[in-house]
Amino acid sequence: MTGAGEDWLSDGLGVAGADFGLWVSGVDYVAGWRDAREAADRLNRALLGAGFELSQVRAVASTDEGGRGVVRVAGWPDAVDRLAGLLDAAVDSGGGAA
Question: Which residues, including other chains, have CB under 8 Å from residue 46's CB and lie 6 or more apart?
Fold first, then answer.
C-alpha cells in the first residue's frame, strides 16, 4: 500500500526496525503478520481516503513475540495530531466505534 510514491519506504519514520527481535522456533509468525497486514492495508486505504500521505502517517503490520498480529500507527507528530482530531470529531458527531 503506497501513497503518491515509493519514497515512504525511506521517509525517516524508522518503522523498518520496529519488529526486530528474536524469533522463537515453532511460532507461526506469518499467520499473525498476514492478519495484521490486511488490517494495516485497510487502515492505510482509509488514511489515503482522508487525505493523508503514507509518508506522513501509516499503519504498519508486525507480530508480537507470540505470533499474534499487531498493527502500529507510525507518523510525524503533526499528521498524527490531525488524525486524532478527525477521530475526535467522528466520536463527537456520534460516529464512534460500535
Answer: none
